[in-house]
What does this fold into?
Amino acid sequence: HVLPVHVSDTDEGHIAGRLNSALNEVGFAEGIRRALARADLPLTVPEYILLKVAAALLPTALVIVITRSLLVAPLIALLGFFLPTLWLRRRRRHRQRLFAEQLPDMLSSLSGSLRGGFSLAQSLGNVANEAPAPLGVEMRRVMQELQLGLGIGEALNNLARRMESDDLDLVVAVIRINARIGGNLTTVLENINTTIRERTRLQREIRVITSQQRFASYILGLLPIILGMILMTINPDYMLKLFLPGPTLIIPVV
It folds into this structure.
């Protein structure tokens, strides 16, 4: 008789820990970890890699079962493998855009708290408690780092690295300079706030003016793909000739 082998939760934890440690030593792991933090995704590096592998294998297997052909399998696998990366990048940019839109409100709150007699750390704590996500989430991380013993300048530098915002870099630089040489921080933050609001207003106007052109570019970019899918549905034998060995194979590859 063969006894079944049971893997305990402790063993699974050890296996996951060893896998996580092994992948963390790989050179690209730090970039993935930083991208996950910027997108605020509660995933580890191994989980994200497994997600990319699953996104490549599952649609490929489904296409092979349906079409009974291996011609398009590499293309589907490649597309599925890069889809999580595109989704992660889109989520990160959306979060950074929301943060940039909330930054003027943060500066207004900081200026008001400083004018009311609060310290900079207390003002940052007020923003962390009152601001919505993603600003509130990031400011709570800053407060946690302050509680762990980091200085305000270092904690704000970590925030600037996570969010990749030029406006935030300017704010952090002003706060660090003010901590060294002194001055009226409230007035400086109000001036920066006015500048950011004016630039944001101009950027919104530009987006409105160019919206029609951007929409037309999306349509023109997707048109060949949509037309190819329609032709594949209407006459698959005609379209599959593109994937036969020969010079025409260059077209779908490119």
In short: The two ends are 57 Å apart (CA to CA). The chain has a mean pLDDT of 86. The first helix runs from residue 9 to 24.
